[in-house]
Amino acid sequence: MLFLYIRLGEYIWMGLVMICRAAELPGPGEMREFAVEGRSLCLANEGGRYAAMDNICPHRGGPLAEGMLEAGKVLCPWHAWAFDLSTGQADHDASERVAVYPLTFEGDAVMADM
Among 6, 51, 96, 113, which residue carries the largest CB count within 10 Å? Predict the structure, then answer.
């Protein structure tokens, strides 16, 4: 698979990147951590709706995939900061967020648009 890297301000656009195979997806109400292109991603399954976001909490670096999934939010296991699955925005402060990545399913491959 060929990826084009384009520097846009602080961000590097990579296009679609494979996260995992369908058999590796987390079950309902679960989250899993995946290493993708040098990043740690949290893949969550809330009632069959899958979402991908950066796995590192901006507060103290907690691993979000080891936290809890509750009402459309990922709660950090270290200090319970909550991040919206759709937007990545923190509940307590509109200026805090983690990056979220749209998902695409291509056959058996789960891809994130990074």
Answer: 51
> Which of 1, 9, 18 is CA-nearest to residue 103?
18
Give 39: exposed, middle or buried? Use CB within 10 Å, 0-12, 13-18, 19+: middle
In a domain, 16, yes or no: no
Give mean pLDDT, residues 18-22: 95
pLDDT computed for residue 31 by the predictor:
98
Instruction: Kindly state the tokens that stand for 106.
Output: 């291509």
Domain CATH number, residue 80: 2.102.10.10
Q: Tell me the per-residue pLDDT of 44-77, one tens digit each, with 9 for 90 and over.
A: 999 999 999 999 999 999 999 999 999 999 999 9
Cβ-based neighbours of 56, under 8 Å, separated by 6 or more: 40, 62, 63, 64, 98
